[in-house]
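Late entry, evening session. Most of the bench is empty. Finally got around to the prediction I had been postponing all week. Sequence below, unchanged from the version circulated by S.P.
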Amino acid sequence: MGMRAFGKAVFGWLFVLFCAVLFAVGCRREPRPEGEAKPIELTYSIFFPASHIQAQTAAAWAEEVERRTDGRVKITLFPGGTLTPAAQCYDGVVNGISDIGMSCFAYTRGRFPLLEGLDLPMGYPDGKTATRIATELAMKYQPAEIQDTHLLYIHAHGPGILASRKPVRALADVKGMKIRGTGLSAKIVESLGGVPVAMSQPETYEALQKGIVDATLCPIETLKGWKQGEVIESVTDTSVIGYTTAMFVVMNKNSWAKLPADLQEIVTAVSAEWVDRHGEAWDQADKEGREFVEELGREIIALPAEEHVAWRKAVENILEEYAQAAEAAGLPGRAFLQDIQARLAQPAAR
C-alpha cells in the first residue's frame, strides 16, 4: 500500500471513530441528580368531555398540583369516560383502574344512601353554594359509603331546570312526560307526574333528538356544555324546586397512601381551593348556557306564582321520604338535611 492510500485509510478510520464518539455523546442520557426520584404518575378518569368547562377546571387542578409539587406529581387526564364509563368511574377508582376519578353519585343509585341527600330539591341558589355545602357536609359526616376511596372534594351544579321538546307552562303539562332523571332527580320526576328515564349526560342528546325522552331535568349549563339546547324547544324555570347533582373527586386509597406526607398536604390544599373554582365555573357555565339557549331562539318560560305553590307541594314528600329511609338504615338523614337547610339560610353560604 502506498503512502497516499495509507493516509486515506487512516483518515477514514479516524472519521468513523469521530462520528461514533459524536453519536455516543449525543445519545447519552444525562444522569438524574443524586437523590432525585422519578415523578409519581397518576391517571384521572373524568366523565365530562374535554371541551366541558368542568373538565377544563379539573385539568387546571392537575396542572396546579404538578406546579406546586415541582413536577414530583404528574397527572394524566382521561376525559369523556374513555378510561371508565360514568357509572363505573367510582368503582374504577376503588379497583385501581384509575388513580383519581370524577363522576356523579347519582349514576349509581342506592350506592351512596346518605350523600344522595345532597341532590334533593333543597333550593340551592347557585353552583358555588351547592359545591361548598356538598364538600363541607361530606367532610363532616365522612359516611361509610365513601370510605373505600380518599375524598378530595365534591362539586355540584346550580339549580336544575326543565328543558323539553314542547313547552311546559304548568305542572299539569308534565303528566306522563318521559323525562331524563338520575338518582334522586328521578324521584322528583315521579312526584311531578312524569316518567323518569335513567341515563348519563352523554346519552341524553340522542335520546332527546330521537324522542326517546320528552324532556330532561338539568342545570341550564348542560344545554350548552352537552349541546342539548340544539334538540329541545323550550326551557321552564323550575328553580322554585331547584335541586343539584353532586359530583365526587376521589382518589384510590393505595395511590393516596403512596404519596409522601408533603405531597398529600399539597394535593389537599389545592383541592380545597378548587371547591370554589368548580362552583364559580358552574355559575359561569349557567350564564353561558342561558345565553346559548336564547341565541338558539328557544323559549324560556317563567312559572306564575300559583304554579310555584303547586310545584313545591308536589315534591315536599321527597325530603321526608329520604329522611325516613336514611334513619331506617341507621344513617343521620334528618340531621343531614337540617345541616343543608341551616347552611342555605346563612347569607355567607351564597
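Two things to note before I forget:
The chain has a mean pLDDT of 89.
DSSP finds eleven helices and eleven strands in the chain.
Will write this up properly tomorrow.
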